[in-house]
Amino acid sequence: MRSPVLLKMAAPIDLELKKAFSELQVKMIDTQQKVKLADLQIDQLTRVQKHAKLTHAEITTLPDKTRLYEGVGRMFILQSKEEINIQLMDKHKTADEKIKELEQKKLYLERSVKDAEDNIREMLLSRRAH
């Protein structure tokens, strides 16, 4: 039978570990959801880039005097070839910048979960040592 002093010390340690594990679990679930969202956003931005690139490639083959129209809501506006090319390049550039930001965000999230796991691992090892 354990002495009352040991039981009193073991209970706070177990509660502390339990709390740390539950916090880690919540953090991991939250991070996994954020990483999935970032992946979806990256996929969507990649499609935007691909669309802009293909449209740009098609437009460059057209003669300079070709009448081009930009879709705006339910209507179409006559635009110059140069204007449409500029818009397509801006779209591509903006998507590229957002993809880089999302990749950085994913790295940060993954690193923070790894740090939390390492902290719990250290806590467990220190508990076993005592």
UniProtKB/TrEMBL annotation:
Q: Which GO terms describe its molecular function?
A: protein folding chaperone; unfolded protein binding
Report the InterPro entries cross-referenced here: PFD_beta-like, Prefoldin
**Coiled-coil portions:** 85-119
Keyword Coiled coil in record: yes
- What's in the GO CC field? cytoplasm; prefoldin complex
Taxonomy, superkingdom: Eukaryota
Q: Which SUPFAM superfamilies match?
A: Prefoldin (SSF46579)
Sorted UniProt keywords: Chaperone, Coiled coil
The protein's job, in short, is: Binds specifically to cytosolic chaperonin (c-CPN) and transfers target proteins to it. Binds to nascent polypeptide chain and promotes folding in an environment in which there are many competing pathways for nonnative proteins.
The entry's protein name is: Prefoldin subunit 1
Taxonomic lineage: Eukaryota, Metazoa, Chordata, Craniata, Vertebrata
